[in-house]
Structure formats: C-alpha cells, structure tokens
Amino acid sequence: MTSTSPALAENFSSPLRHDWTLSEVEALFQKPFNDLIFQAQLAHREHFDPNQVQVSTLLSIKTGACPEDCKYCPQSGHYNTGLEKEKLMEVKKVLEEAQRAKASGATRFCMGAAWKNPPAKDMPYIIEMIKGVKELGLESCMTLGMLSEDQASELAQAGLDYYNHNLDTSPEFYGNIITTRTYSDRLNTLSFVREAGMNVCSGGIVGLGETERDRAGMLVQLANMPKHPESVPINMLVKVAGTPLEDVDAVEGIDFVRTIAVAKIMMPASNVRLSAGRELMSDELQALAFLAGANSIFLGDKLLTTANPEANKDRQLFEKLGINEGHDWGAMLEAPHEKCPIKAMYDAEKSNDHYYDAMAGKSMAGRD
Ligand code: SF4
C-alpha cells in the first residue's frame, strides 16, 4: 500500500498567487521530479481537463529583416540566416488564410510580424486584418513587437483578443540575449496590453544558456503580474545556423519539463503552451510535458500532410495519449482531398514559409 508523503501533501490546492519569491520558486525546481510532476498535475486538474490540448495555428504576416538583435532569432536583420525577408502580407491574403484555418476547425487565428513595433503606416492594415478575422467568427491573436499605449488601445478597439509578447528570460540574463530593447520595454508593452483589455500571451525560451535561477526569475516575473497571462508559451530553443546561439549547449529534456511543471504550479489557470522546439522532442518527452501541465501546442504542417509517413506524428501522439478524443482527425485526414479542408489547406501551404511549422521550428522560431 502506498501513502502520500508529507512533501506531496503540502500543496494539494493551487490558489492563484502573485507574491512568489525567487527562493520559493528555486525550491520548486529542486523538488524530486516525481513530486514536482505530481504537484503540477494536481494544479492542472483543478482548472483544466487533463486530456485536452488546445491547438493553435500561427501565420507569419511579415517575415524577416527585424531590427532587433535577439540572439536566438533567424528573423533578426543582424544575422545572416538565409531567411528571405518579406513585406507585410496583403489583408486579402491573410483573410483567405484565416478562412482556411476556420474551415480546418481552428477557433483562434494567430498572426505574427517581425517588427520592433508596428509602423504607423501599417496599422490600418493590421486593424483591417483583425476586423476581418473577427467577422469570420474566429478569435484573433497578434504578435507585432512593442506597442505604445495608443497602439494597444487601437488593437483592442478593433477587437483583438490576444496579444503575444514574450519576456524570453530573467531580467538578469536578458542583456546577454537582447540589447536593442530593454526588459522594462517588454513589461510596459504587456501592461499596455492588459490595460487595454486584451488577453496576454507571454512566456519565454529555455536553452539560451541561462541558469535554473534565470528560469525561476522569468516565471516570477510572469506569475507576479497583477493578473497571470492567459497563455504562457514555453519554448525550447531551436538553434539556427547563423545566429549567435547556434552552438549553445542544448537543454536537458528533464530540465525543460521541470520548467513547464513549475510554470503550471505558479500559474495553474493559464494555458501553458508547448511551443517552438517540439521537433527536437521525442514522443516521450512531449508526453511528460503534457503530464507536467502543458495544454496547448502550435500545429506543425506535417500533422496534416498524409503523403509523408512522418506527417501524422502529432495526431498519432495524441491518439496514443488519448488527448482530444472525440476530435475526428482521422476521418478528416482520410477524407478525399476535395472534401477535406484541412488537408487541402496544408497541401496548398506545404511550400509556403508563412505558416509556422512547429515541427521544423522554421519561420517564426523567434516570434516575440
Ligand atoms: S524575436 Fe521578434 S523582436 Fe526579436 S529579432 Fe525575432 S522577430 Fe525581431
């Protein structure tokens, strides 16, 4: 017969707290792995169905040539990564993509642009995109860089539901990764987004060369905001040739899962998103991340490309784990091409770099 140890019994309820201390969070990271995962799973079950994972699609509406110098990002104009830069996508084209995403069953459409901040000349087009996506009945999400207070209100008034702006890492380590904008700039944007009434999506990256203390420090920043971000993406660095971090040591999978678990314990009602870097992870590592409380992913185009034997990896993993049962991926994938909006969409987009490919980590690996 087993018994619950005092170490586990100490934290069976997970109230929403905003007063985390660094030492307290470091202690969470130091817990025995099984105890940590158990606690995270309990916290997760207080707020979510443990077998549901939200799936998002992300479209790059403006790729490359970003003036920021984020050392991990292939979209930075400071590094030569061979990424072709592109202008802002036409509104019509964006809405066509949104329509296809809707036909595929998506409920939220995320749009990302590699900008320091949205240029005034492009704001009218951005507003049109938001309104158009809303008219389709989809939730809208954008990541466009820093925002002024006025821009945040403009986006909110247009109906934008979510704004993504990551903290990336701790305030202490931040200067090793980005020099062209400050940590305070990021916090200011997030507070403008919140004050304007939009939902906040903010997280960071594991594997930049940071310490465990830095991971704890980043989570303290997120969890101690007056309201937790509704979405907390935790990325595993995708090392891209040509960026200054191309040779940084890879993060241990177990350490990555610990970060997910601690994030879930600290922000139990938030969606913790297993974000960029999934292509580096085995099925077992992803399963551990779901067990630790990750309940959101970005869809890779390979998921729905039946021609490739590797293509259905995500769907197969979900089936193996009993995730999102009742979602009829199989029937849709096996449907004849002309009857299958998802397959048609991804077949059409296979050679299009605009779609974020979570499995390859391309195109939007450094979305902010
Ligand atoms: S992460 Fe965002 S801000 Fe930084 S270089 Fe890439 S696109 Fe620009």
UniProtKB/TrEMBL annotation:
Annotated cofactor note: Binds 1 [2Fe-2S] cluster. The cluster is coordinated with 3 cysteines and 1 arginine.
PANTHER family in UniProt: BIOTIN SYNTHASE (PTHR22976), BIOTIN SYNTHASE, MITOCHONDRIAL (PTHR22976:SF2)
Annotated metabolic or biological route of this protein: Cofactor biosynthesis; biotin biosynthesis; biotin from 7,8-diaminononanoate: step 2/2
GO biological process: biotin biosynthetic process
UniProt-recorded Gene Ontology molecular function terms: 2 iron, 2 sulfur cluster binding; 4 iron, 4 sulfur cluster binding; biotin synthase activity; iron ion binding
UniProt entry keywords in alphabetical sequence: 2Fe-2S, 4Fe-4S, Biotin biosynthesis, Iron, Iron-sulfur, Metal-binding, S-adenosyl-L-methionine, Transferase
Top-tier EC class: transferase
Residues that hold [4Fe-4S] cluster according to the record: C66, C70, C73
Residue ranges constituting the Radical SAM core domain according to the UniProt record: 51-269
Family matches, as HAMAP family: BioB (MF_01694)
UniProt superkingdom: Bacteria
Protein name: Biotin synthase
Catalysed reactions, semicolon-separated: (4R,5S)-dethiobiotin + (sulfur carrier)-SH + 2 reduced [2Fe-2S]-[ferredoxin] + 2 S-adenosyl-L-methionine = (sulfur carrier)-H + biotin + 2 5'-deoxyadenosine + 2 L-methionine + 2 oxidized [2Fe-2S]-[ferredoxin]
Amino-acid positions noted as binding [2Fe-2S] cluster in the UniProt annotation, renumbered to this chain: C110, C141, C201, R273
Transmembrane segments: none
Chain's role: Catalyzes the conversion of dethiobiotin (DTB) to biotin by the insertion of a sulfur atom into dethiobiotin via a radical-based mechanism.
EC number: 2.8.1.6
UniProt subunit comment: Homodimer.
Cofactor dependence: [2Fe-2S] cluster; [4Fe-4S] cluster
Listed NCBIfam families: bioB
Family assignment from sequence similarity: Belongs to the radical SAM superfamily. Biotin synthase family.
PROSITE patterns named among the record's database cross-references: RADICAL_SAM
InterPro entries: Aldolase_TIM (IPR013785), BATS_dom (IPR010722), Biotin_synth/BioAB (IPR002684), Biotin_synthase (IPR024177), Elp3/MiaA/NifB-like_rSAM (IPR006638), rSAM (IPR007197), rSAM_sf (IPR058240)
